[in-house]
Amino acid sequence: MQFQHLILAGGSGTRLWPLSRSGFPKQFLSFGEKESLFQQTVNRLQDLDIQGATQLPAMVIANEEHRFLANEQLREIGQSHVDLLLEPVGRNTAPALTLSALRADPDTVFIVTPADQTISDKKVFRETIQIAINEANKSNAIVVLGIVPESAHTGYGYIESGKSNSGIGEVVSFKEKPDLAVATKYLTKGNYYWNAGIFVVRASVWLAALRQFRNDIYEATYAAASKLKVDGNFHRPDKGLFLDIPAESIDYAVIEKCPGSGTPISMVSLDAGWSDLGAWDSVWENTVKDNSNNVLIGDVLSFDTTNSYVHSLNSLVGVVGLDNIIVIETADAVLVANKSRSQDVKQIVDRLKINKRDESLLHRKVCRPWGWYDSLDEEEKFKVKRILVKPGASLSLQKHHHRAEHWIVVSGVAEVICGDETMMLQENQSTYIPQGQVHRLSNPGSLPLELIEVQSGSYLGEDDIVRLEDSYGRTSGDS
């Protein structure tokens, strides 16, 4: 037997705005831990010891937009060998799992886990996963993990489990998110579990079930996978064909249709301190609190405040006389919400999208494969950025139709191509890039390069970049 950990890292986490944004979603954030949720997920199932079985390297399924972010976080934890299967657009989780199953040996057992969850008891989690792997391999069933409920939670779907055999029960039904009265009834009955979205299934079993229930998804995904291209550790299906795939979740496409259908589906219960950190109230619940039942992160001063979550990234935040309140401060946005209304933060994000505001997309500080930039100030005809270029990294050879740029080196050494001239700039030296001039910025040194960029012109949007050469396979207008 061989098995592989598939990590679903394509979510957006809109309910955790303004920390989580579409360009930097919650799975790549850290909430009081050294590692991000994504990094924790990758490390959680490393080196499982199952007798007679071979563990394949993990596979990450992510959005094309997040490829460099995911790659950098993999590098930070020493997992640069992990491959990324890149979706050109979001099509939910069923096509993502299908892409993986189509490229795998049919007998491979997949452990499918979202990248944005927390598990406090890693030992129990690993033991439970091993039980699920052995069951999926032995019985050819789809095995789901059911979380032992701690409360009558209305934000999760539920799994109704039948009689168990050595901790493995047949799934009777799946239930949508209930109201409080129904959730309380489930909790009292004792055979209902939270649906964590964690599945263990053989590749061939998944494909057979998908063809049974949603052959349209199977056929469309097969077409896109047949033209998959590999570039280093990036695996890309055909973009045009991928757009034709119906968007659907693993649950709706297959899992919830299995009970009573003849396709065997079982459940293994998990009691390991699980949380999906779906909204700010959940983050508060799963973080260590002070004597006033508060979580205070960053430069925060609190007086007469209880049961609240206050997170500051940049500024001093003072809170007085609050109870049950969420306060999140970032460089360009502040959220203040009643903790009981955390799910409604999505409404703010929806309005930002309708109004086409960038605050739903990116932070002021934007990560790039070569480093990052931070937009410090901007008016109609100028923009000021702080830029960091990693040692040995280089921006694309490019030009701009509508703006000129001034670069001032703050620290490190810059190699600058401007037209036919190549120059080296040291600390406190500067140069000017005329509008329309072909140019490139590189860091040839062993230390980070920091500089200030002042843009001036009639249009200062990030899409005014014409890339002529790029070390990262990007095209004009690409991130």
Any key phrases for this structure?
six-stranded antiparallel sheet; Spore Coat Polysaccharide Biosynthesis Protein SpsA, Chain A; alpha/beta; Jelly Rolls; about 475 residues; 31 strands
Explained architecture:
This protein is α/β, with parallel strands linked by helices and 479 residues long. The chain folds into three domains: 2-275, Spore Coat Polysaccharide Biosynthesis Protein SpsA, Chain A (Alpha-Beta Complex); 280-350, no CATH class; 365-469, Jelly Rolls (Sandwich). It is 22% helix and 34% strand. The protein is built from eleven helices and 31 strands. It has a six-stranded antiparallel beta sheet, with no helix packed on it. It has a five-stranded mixed barrel with strand order 7-10-8-9-13. The chain has a four-stranded mixed beta sheet with strand order 15-17-19-20. A hairpin with a 3-residue loop joins strand 22 and strand 23 (382-389). Helix 3 packs across helix 6 (203-213), helix 3 (93-103) packs across helix 7 (215-225) and helix 6 packs across helix 7. The longest helix has 18 residues, at 122-139. The radius of gyration is 25 Å and the shape is globular. The model has no long low-confidence stretch (mean pLDDT 93).
